[in-house]
Amino acid sequence: xxxxxxxxxxxxxxxxxxxxxxxxxxxxxxxxxxxxxxxxxxxxxxxxxxxxxxxxxxxxxxxxxxxxxxxxxxxxxxxxxxxxxxxxxxxxxxxxxxxxxxxxxxxxxxxxxxxxxxxxxxxxxxxxxxxxxxxxxxxxxxxxxxxxxxxxxxxxxxxxxxxxxxxxxxxxxxxxxxxxxxxxxxxxxxxxxxxxxxxxxxxxxxxxxxxxxxxxxxxxxxxxxxxxxxxxxxxxxxxxxxxxxxxxxxxxxxxxxxxxxxxxxxxxxxxxxxxxxxxxxxxxxxxxxxxxxxxxxxxxxxxxxxxxxxxxxxxxxxxxxxxxxxxxxxxxxxxxxxxxxxxxxxxxxxxxxxxxxxxxxxxxxxxxxxxxxxxxxxxxxx
Length: 382
Fold this sequence. Notes:
Number of domains: 3
Number of strands: 11
Largest sheet: 7 strands, mixed
Order of helices and strands: HHHEHEHEHEHEEHEHHHEEHEEH
Radius of gyration: 22 Å
């Protein structure tokens, strides 16, 4: 972040990509985009290289690793890039131990990026309906194949905020030497929770996950496309291959704006932790208020509100009423509405949510049938 600030002030002639050269050039460009362009650069001298870092990006990733307690790599293409790299590294780790054909055990519904990786890497998949089936099924899995999988892949939490007991799963896998692979796209903020208050919602690194991804942009104040790949010491044998794995599935022109966004967060992590702890209590209170109104509020992680359909209202009704009250939800379909919050939502946002549901409860609003059908977030999972 410091480098970009200094470069923007340097008045240097930009004889490098990108083509906007850090200015609008008289073309019609919105103010906010022109401001962003000033800091949008490529791999110039001193800026370091995301996939072969030796300077400021390496230092920034090391700072992030100290926060999360693992070897941490930045992704500028979301958890999708990190998921593919995670499976690539798990396969590499497996190949150092076995010459058998690799396969992976996957629990429950998985994001489409998992299946893209499976196709690209030539992996077989053994599916389990849920993580609760793991203990009963593990012996069968090994007996069927006569050797261990490259890992057990868990989505934690799922899109509705449901979590598995990762510590227990890790205890089951450890005697067999099977790595625990976690798609933690929605769990980045778990690292900043008070675990004594929220013992179910522990960051995968702290649960002993061997390798996991986490989308920074989903729950932290960073730009869309930012994510982390965290690798624990148990997979130290693939540390040297981690950057290659990320580069294999990423663009050769990663965004420095996104990298700077993650770098900026490192400096505010301690403040963010305090904000999360306070805001979780406000969200908990709002969930209780919605339940007391008679709405079916689903169990979810602390900063997510899921309201399920009932005999009167559908998820589309909820979304329409929220929209009418100046609230845009994360996603909805006929069965539910999902709202994802963060400490950057203020009291007015929470009041608008409450007022929207009060309007429905008191029968003062006829849901707008013109609202288009929502995009179901579950379309990304199978």
